[in-house]
Structure formats: structure tokens, C-alpha cells
Q: What sequence folds into this?
């Protein structure tokens, strides 16, 4: 869920590392047990009402499913439309979750509705953080609000953005970003301009998932609904790999690499850009704590740079310390402070972001 203007990547080493991780580390994770402990469901799963009996995991197709829970063969009999509708509006019960392997990417998961993934074996939930790559499949919507001070030494900038993740099945979800407010200085009078920004549409594909690890591929495009004065008005194609991995004692590491290529020309020039991300955090409170349930403290690092040779090298590197916590009933609040460490011509002093997020 990263909001950046891309700059330049000096070499392809991070991308090679991401591919190495995908093809050589996956077999290690594939040995993990497929059994699910219902007592360790993720926080992004609606909680069991008082008095209800938690649903047991499905061990095989020969085991009878509890009332209201679909068995694997029943899910496979549904049409793609039924699968999509169940993914978007259904219960998404973790009792139906099972690991998915990249070795069966084309044959498994496409005919199964989306389900929330259980917590990791150490108790960490799968959640999104500010300015970090996801590496996780979601069913959430977000309202983001941001501020950057002294952008390009020419005043401050502000933005408001609505994002929604819509699952289609276990393997695919769709992300739509709608930047409904972008404000910065520009124009002939160098005054503050407020406009609608470029929307972004992306498909996110689950390559591999166990309780402790997930790897996804992302491919998308920007839609030129904005104007150059506020950084919009360009069509750019993007693709990347992202991962999420839980470690001991509720520590989580995530990251990945992507590339963005311009599909249209603009007078001010749009570059071919790369972005490498790495973030690490630890969950420090218990789930269900009002306003601070499953609170995580983390730091995210981003390297953004251009890959083409159309102009001089322009590299940007920043750190974003942040937090996330549950308010109640699957409502969350998130905050982060972005601190540029190495900046280009459009760098800024610091940035603030605040999110309100709802798991639906």
C-alpha cells in the first residue's frame, strides 16, 4: 500500500533477489503442515460470537463440513461468478483455508472462494502497513490522508485516497486506488492547486501461501484521470513480486520489488522506475484490546530510482516508522512518518500519513 512517485533503480540486483526468493525458497515453505488451529485465526477475520462453537478445519473431502461451511468439492462445483460473489460477500471462514503452492498455481485455488488466512504459527496476523509492500491477499477498504512538507522546496502537498481490495477467488484479487484529492503548488502563478489524481487498477495473484509465508505477483496500470499540475495525467504499467513472512515471537518481515514503465508521453517526462521495499515489525499487544488490539510497531525502507538513461540518475531512499492497531469490530487505525534519507529534486522534509481501514 505504497504511495510514492517513482524515481530510479541503479541495477537489477534487487529484482534478481526477488526471483531467487520465489523459485528457491518456496520449496522450504511448502513442507509446512496444512492443518489449521482454529484458536489462532487472524485478526482480520470476524470474531466468533459469544456462545458459538468455533468451526473445525476441514482435513479432507471425506470429512463432513460443519453446517454453513462449504467442503472443497462443493466449492469446486460453483461457477466463476458464484465464486466471485462468495469471495466478496461471503463469510470467508478460515475453516476452509488450506495452503496453496506455486507448483499448482494454474490448477488450484481458482475455483475456491476467498477465505481469511489463519494467524501464523507464532500468532502474527496478516495485515497491511503504511509505505510497505503487501505480500498478502486482502478484503479491505482504506481511506488514507497524507501530508508532505516543503516538496521540491516549493510548499507543502496534501492528498486523500480511497483504496479497496476486492477478492475474486483464492488466487486473485483486484485493487482499485482512487485519489480523490491532490493538492500542491504549481501552474503559471505557482499557487496551490487541488485536483483529482490518477486512479490505479491492479490484479494481485497469490503464487504461494502457507500459514507463515505468502508470495504474490502484481500487475497493474494507472488511469490518467488527473492533471500534470498535481503529478497526474499519465498512463504507467507496473509489475512486481511481493512477500510476507512471519517469524518467532510475532515478528513479521515483508517486502519485494516492482518496476513501472510509462505507456504515454508527457512534456515533463515520465521515467521507467523501480522500487525495492523491505519492512520489519513486531506485534506487541493482544487481539481484542479496545483501540490498541494487535498493535504492531514497524519500520519500512524504500529505495526508488529510475532504470532508463534518458536523464541523470535520480535516486530516493526513505524510512517510514509506523504503527497499526484495531479499534474494534475489524476497524483499524494506522499512522506513519516518512523520512527521506536520500532525496531527488522532488524530495521533501518529511511526510505524515494516517489511515482508517475496515475489513469487510
A:
Amino acid at each position: 500500500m505504497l504511495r510514492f512517485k517513482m524515481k530510479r533503480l541503479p541495477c537489477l540486483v534487487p529484482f534478481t533477489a526477488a526471483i531467487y526468493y520465489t523459485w528457491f525458497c518456496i520449496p522450504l515453505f511448502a513442507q509446512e503442515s496444512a492443518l489449521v488451529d482454529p484458536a489462532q485465526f487472524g485478526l482480520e477475520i470476524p470474531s466468533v460470537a459469544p456462545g458459538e462453537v468455533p468451526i473445525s478445519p476441514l482435513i479432507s473431502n471425506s470429512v463432513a463440513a460443519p453446517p454453513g461451511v462449504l467442503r472443497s468439492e462443493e466449492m469446486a462445483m460453483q461457477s466463476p461468478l458464484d465464486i466471485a460473489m462468495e469471495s466478496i460477500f461471503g463469510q470467508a471462514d478460515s475453516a476452509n483455508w488450506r495452503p496453496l503452492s506455486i507448483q499448482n498455481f494454474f490448477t488450484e485455488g481458482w475455483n475456491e472462494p476467498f477465505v481469511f488466512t489463519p494467524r501464523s504459527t507464532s500468532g502474527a496476523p496478516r495485515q497491511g502497513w503504511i509505505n510497505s509492500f503487501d505480500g498478502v491477499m486482502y478484503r479491505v477498504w482504506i481511506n488514507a490522508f497524507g501530508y508532505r512538507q516543503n516538496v521540491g522546496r516549493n510548499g507543502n502537498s496534501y492528498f486523500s485516497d480511497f483504496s479497496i481490495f476486492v477478492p475474486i477467488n483464492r488466487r486473485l484479487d483486484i485493487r482499485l486506488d482512487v485519489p480523490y484529492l491532490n493538492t500542491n503548488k504549481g501552474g503559471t502563478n505557482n499557487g496551490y492547486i487541488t485536483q483529482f489524481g490518477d486512479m490505479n487498477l491492479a490484479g494481485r495473484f497469490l503464487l504461494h501461501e502457507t500459514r507463515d509465508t505468502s508470495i504474490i505477483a502484481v500487475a497493474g496500470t494507472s488511469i490518467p484521470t488527473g492533471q500534470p499540475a498535481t503529478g497526474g495525467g499519465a498512463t504507467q504499467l507496473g509489475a512486481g513480486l511481493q512477500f510476507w513472512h512471519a517469524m518467532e515471537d510475532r515478528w513479521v518481515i515483508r517486502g519485494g520489488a516492482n518496476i513501472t514503465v510509462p505507456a504515454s508521453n508527457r512534456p515533463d517526462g515520465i521515467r521507467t522506475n523501480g522500487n525495492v521495499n523491505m519492512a520489519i515489525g513486531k506485534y506487541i499487544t493482544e487481539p481484542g484490546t479496545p483501540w490498541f488490539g494487535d498493535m504492531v510497531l514497524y519500520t519500512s525502507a524504500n529505495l526508488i530510482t529510475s532504470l532508463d538513461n534518458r536523464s541523470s540518475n535520480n535516486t530516493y531512499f526513505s524510512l517510514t516508522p509506523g504503527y497499526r492497531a484495531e479499534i474494534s469490530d475489524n476497524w483499524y487505525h494506522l499512522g506513519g512518518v516518512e523520512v527521506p534519507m536520500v532525496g531527488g529534486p522532488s524530495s521533501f522534509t518529511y511526510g505524515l500519513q494516517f489511515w482508517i481501514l475496515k475489513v469487510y
User: Anything to note?
Assistant: The chain has one domain: 1-360.
